[in-house]
Amino acid sequence: MDHITIKTLAKKLGISTSTISRAFNGSTDINKDTRDRILDYAKKHNFLPNHYASNLRDKKSKTLAVIVPEIVNDFFAQAINGIEEVARKKGFYILLYRTDDVFEKEVSFVNYLNNGKADGIIMSVSGEANDHNYMRALAQKNIPVVFFDRVYEDIDVSKVTTNDYEASFEATEHLIHTGCKRIAYLVVNKSISIGKVRMQGYVDALEKHGIAFDDDLVIDCSQDEKINYSIIKQVLEDIKPDGIFSSVERLAFATLSVCNDMNIAIPNDLKIVSFSSLQIAPLLNPPLSTVTQPAYEMGIKAATLLFDALEKKGQVVPRKHIVLKSKLFIRKSSGG
Amino acid sequence: MDHITIKTLAKKLGISTSTISRAFNGSTDINKDTRDRILDYAKKHNFLPNHYASNLRDKKSKTLAVIVPEIVNDFFAQAINGIEEVARKKGFYILLYRTDDVFEKEVSFVNYLNNGKADGIIMSVSGEANDHNYMRALAQKNIPVVFFDRVYEDIDVSKVTTNDYEASFEATEHLIHTGCKRIAYLVVNKSISIGKVRMQGYVDALEKHGIAFDDDLVIDCSQDEKINYSIIKQVLEDIKPDGIFSSVERLAFATLSVCNDMNIAIPNDLKIVSFSSLQIAPLLNPPLSTVTQPAYEMGIKAATLLFDALEKKGQVVPRKHIVLKSKLFIRKSSGG
DNA sequence: ACATTTGACACAATCGATTGAAGTAATCTT
DNA sequence: AAGATTACTTCAATCGATTGTGTCAAATGT
Fold it and tell me: Who wins on pLDDT, A87 or A28?
């Protein structure tokens, strides 16, 4: 047979399309024998009701859009695992989109999602402080959104974040306790939400311990690996910090590379702590002290919040903001 | 306005739905002014033609299903990047599914895809040597499939793999050149395709250099991290190999952990080479020698093959098997 | 024995967009 | 000026499944 539809199936079995449909959708309004006969035949011929036809009727896609800046990153990969875990239990699937931290890509994909391709969206935003009205359009369409980790403060949706301020404070304080006097703060974009909050923790920890804040020690890096390498190299040569607090895993890697090449001894000459959810951080040279976010749990929570909204569709669902705790793992890179 | 459709839009603008549709689909058969008027209005009101309605008509979903064993793994994450790159250029999106190497999950998802949710499938299979007839059903539905890295030999689809045999041979030979006499082979499931081929390279390299193959040195591990840790610990304690060739990145990490804990000096007491696409392999302690697969390029190729098939739909497209080259990076873990 | 409920299924409208064919007005031919 | 083009635009069937309403017979109630 070329192409089976519910209609051809109905003809074949001598029953109506409605009965077939009900067989697939577990209606009670159908005889068990009839249902079995239908399902058996369908299985044998490998038939499933067309997804797009069902969707058109029901306006449910059973699909979640997940938008992240990058995939080659244990934090996001683990978060996606968490999201998928929950989605799978609900019979949902994941439409994945990577923004590369490019604002325009984010906008373009979010706008695309207006067509109903996904029932809900979970995203970690690119973070640009631009006009976020494209996000508001989703609310009009009743497509719930949950932000995780990187959020837009001005958009009223549910959020899952970590205690970035406290964790940064603790990490910085830890470096101070190990004797660091000149701690550099590495950040990719100090103006976006997450960079700002983490920096505040750093700044306040310095102040608490009577260390003057030095703007030269705030190192604003880029998305480009090579540029970062040379920025950091220059910093280590010229500014000579004795501690590094990196708000982003990637910058810690770059720092390790530079130190390798310049023969800077960690932790003796330089101590490092970085935000990172890298599972093999203990295997690095030296083992990297990390502020580790509960990535997987964040994914779970984010998905759970989204389904909360999805299942109460139509009703006004109060936004929630869940804050999970990061954990500081002190390893050799900071003298641990 | 509650809900905009092409119909309500038509009424609003005083034109027919067909004209609207043509405005969106870049038909030449429409006046430029009319089109602009439509598109402007649509943009202002944030309207896009419903995805499911279009799909139902066209039987095109502009979606690619990507099935991988895991996501927290630089190899797969990079491959997904490559796939997404190509897909994006074609205006396609990615439906992501993770099997955790569980055969049943793979079967269940592949069967689900029979409903037309995706136009094509790119997958790295779980590898179980079971009945693969569920794959054949896709062919009937004209849904093209491309395997990458891990393939089923008995399924006739396009494939993208690497020169696993040669790379394994070279890696093993390298260990022999550094003086290893007792090289263990770490594998997760030695009966699946990829484990077998890589092992053959290992075996033949041993033979070429007159080293007797010892079955005790083939270490069949599991999916569970803790179990692997104890298996490997036992091996290092009892069998005392002087070299490790790991066919899977994860097992190399486990080995490094064990060595750390047991104070086994690498590369002096034990040399290691592993298949791995980890970008920070040079930053490990010690820097890990790797057989690195061109993950990103594999994703690109796989997606390209899929689009080849997609664009010639209906016609018989000859299967292709592209073999890319892995590269051996000799680092300190093997004395480099 | 007659009324009522229930079970099992069929009918047909509907979801929102696409598209071949047909229609209409304006422009061009000769 | 009649016919032929050209350039838009509309009409209406169609994609495949879902579901409220309706039907009919059997089961149950009194």
Answer: A87
Residue positions counted in chain A: 336
Cβ of B21 near strand C (distance < 7 A): yes
Question: Of the candidates A51, A77, A111, which has its C-beta nearest B115's C-beta?
Answer: A51
What is the chain B residue with the closest CA to A6?
Answer: B115
Give the sheet arrangement for strand B271-275, strand by strand.
B218-220, B183-187, B243-246, B271-275, B289-292, B327-329
Q: Cβ-count burial of A39 within 10 angstroms (0-12 exposed, 13-18 middle, 19+ buried)?
A: middle
Record: fold of A164-292+328-334: Rossmann fold (3.40.50)
Partner-chain contact A71 B81, CB within 8 Å:
yes
What is the Cα A6 distance to its own chain's centre?
Answer: 39
User: Taking 90 as the threshold, does the pLDDT of residue B138 lie above it?
Assistant: no
| CATH hierarchy code of domain B6-49 | 1.10.260.40
From residues 47-76 of B, which are strand C contacts by CB within 7 A? Answer: 47-50, 53-54, 56-58
Tens-digit pLDDT profile for residues A196-244:
899 999 999 999 999 999 999 999 999 899 999 999 999 999 999 999 9
Cα–Cα dist B259/B250, whole Å: 14
Contact status of A239 with chain B (Cβ, < 8 Å): no
Identify the closest residue of chain B to A258 by CA–CA distance: B283
Could you read off the pLDDT of A51-60 as tens digits, one per residue?
A: 999 999 988 8
**SS3 per residue for A237-293:** HHHCCCEEEECCHHHHHHHHHHHHHHCCCCCCCCEEEEECCCCCHHHECCCCEEEEC
Answer whether B212 touches A (CB < 8 Å): no
Contact B202, B172 (CB under 8 A): yes
| pLDDT at residue number A141 | 82
Q: What is the pLDDT of residue A130?
A: 81
SS3 category, B271 = strand
Whether nucleic acid strand D comes within 7 Å of the CB of A50, the answer is yes
Whole-number distance in Å between A83 CA and C30 C1': 72
Stretch(es) of chain B classified as CATH 3.40.50.2300? 61-162+295-325, 164-293+328-334
Average pLDDT over residues A80-89: 96
Where in chain A are all domains bearing CATH 3.40.50.2300? 59-161+295-326, 164-292+328-334
Q: Name the segment(s) of chain B with CATH classification 1.10.260.40.
A: 6-49
**Residue-wise pLDDT tens digits, A143-183:** 999 999 999 989 999 999 999 999 999 999 999 999 999 99
pLDDT tens-digit map of A85-102: 999 999 999 999 999 999
Check if residue B22 sits with its Cβ under 7 angstroms from strand C.
Answer: yes
Per-residue model confidence (pLDDT) at position A314: 63
Using DSSP's 3-state secondary structure scheme, residue A21 falls into helix
B103-112 and B133-140 helices cross at what angle (nearest 10)? 20
Q: Distance from residue A143 (CA) to nucleotide D18 (C1'), in Å?
A: 22
Provide the CATH number for the domain formed by A59-161+295-326 in this structure. 3.40.50.2300
pLDDT in tens, B210-231: 999 999 999 999 989 999 999 9
B164-293+328-334: which CATH number, 3.40.50.300, 3.40.50.2300, 3.30.465.10, 3.40.630.30? 3.40.50.2300
Average pLDDT over residues A184-194: 84
Domain covering B61-162+295-325 assigned CATH 1.10.10.10 in the classification: no
Give the model confidence (pLDDT) of B238-262 as tens digits. Answer: 999 999 999 999 999 999 999 999 9
- Give the 3-state secondary structure of residue B319: coil
Of all nucleotides, the one whose C1′ comes closest to residue B54's CA is C17
Q: Do B51 and A283 touch (CB under 8 A)?
A: no
Do A88 and B90 touch, CB atoms closer than 8 A? no
A16 CA to D18 C1' distance (Å): 13
